[in-house]
Amino acid sequence: MPDDFVKSPSYLSVSPEVIQSTPALQPKKNTVLVSHGRPPWYAEDGQRIADAFVIGVAGGSASGKTHVARQIVRRLGSIPTVIILSQDSFYKYHNEEELKLAHANMLDFDHPDAIDMPMFASCLSDLKACKQSNIPVYSFAEHQRLEETKYLYGATIIIAEGIMALVDPALRALYDLKVFVQCDSDLMLARRIKRDVKERGRDVGGILDQYLRYVKPSYDTFVRPSASHADIIVPGSNNDVAIDLICTHIRQQLQERSNKFRQKIAIPHKYLSSRSGASTPDPRPEDLELDITLLPQTRQVQGIYSILRDRTTSRQDFVFFTDRLSTLLVEHALQHLPYAPKTVITPIGMDAHGKKLDAHHICGVAILRSGGALERGFRRVINDVPVGSLLIQSDSTSGEALLLHSMLPTYVRQRHLAKDTYVFLLDAQIGTAAAAFMAIRVLLDHGVKEDHIIFVTFLVARTGGVSVLKGAFPSVKIVCGAIDNEMQEGWLEGYKGEGNTEGKGRKVWVMKPGMGQIGDRYYL
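Structure for uridine/cytidine kinase, as requested:
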């Protein structure tokens, strides 16, 4: 995989019964689990209305904290993305003298000062606020924090576990639920010996010396007293009842935080009241003004759309003319990039005054899968820039957007780069605008500026969600090739959705006349 990309570990393909561990250099406690994707965490105004649900799990060394965290994940069943974040990742960087002590088992890793608490709280705060975070990677074999970091984004539930998880007030302030795992001291010692010998290559003598010198005093002084801050005490073994109670509470909290608004934005003049609160008749499509950039409607463009709309067009022709149209659209969208004056010397020695691109970083992000149909045209126009992707699909029962997969360029992943990056967001059409809402919100969460987002699309539904989208994100530039006037409501067969007890299916919205399923026509 190129260095410009990373597949967000928040979207590894694993089932609820499987926990995917991180590489061997990292603590195996850091895990990411996905079940069915992340639902909207924002309202129709585009603003965040729900944080991730954060659980702090503390307890003595080898008390079973990680086991409890994983049991919570398994018991929850069908859930959005979950991150188990280990305190062990946040051990401080050690100098040469400290490294010698560490390899001789003479460095106290069980004191609160051994943990970079401000960094732990900062990373956890970002994840809770639905932003991306780049957490440090710590090697137990080398007793050192490594140069690399681990990119995390997209969790609905975060479980932060560690012996000091309830000690620091800044961390406690971030938790929605505080759990302490209480376990017999002899059992904890036996588990620690077994784990350190097997996973960390330690000898029994060194383990016992470290336990008596540092671990036991730290537990008595710092860890055990922190149990007073816990909302619930969980036994270190035979804890099925306690875990069931925790899972019931989490489900209730997630239900209260759920947000469903796709129906409101799909046909806004029917579902969103006016500012005065008075009902208004349905406006005529031609009376709706859209703040978007429309590709000049030349005869060539009209001819291309006639070919693409025709159901009898062969796949070969469809792909060819789709690539032509995407090239024209991206070329037209370049006007929204900044340019600076530039003077060059011509072959005959004369000055020629022109322009040069004045953007620090440029990248593309395709909303899969129909957005991929614009990627070839994008690469033809803007060469040698990374192109990432987002997989956003509709929930099979509610129809709400779900974020299933993220593969973003380095320019977006790193917040200090994202603020100076222009992103071309590629999707085939804006109908209900549910996917567009989520994609823009993801970019904003990463630190991309709103006026640095250029949304390029083939079709926009005038009476669809684009007006709500522009109201929520007025500085986002939308460049499209054509505007269809009509969005029609219907039922998708095969599903029993809300408000549909007869089993007609869930409600869908279709753009008319449209171009059909663009992704299917392009790729199949």
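The longest strand covers residues 144-152.
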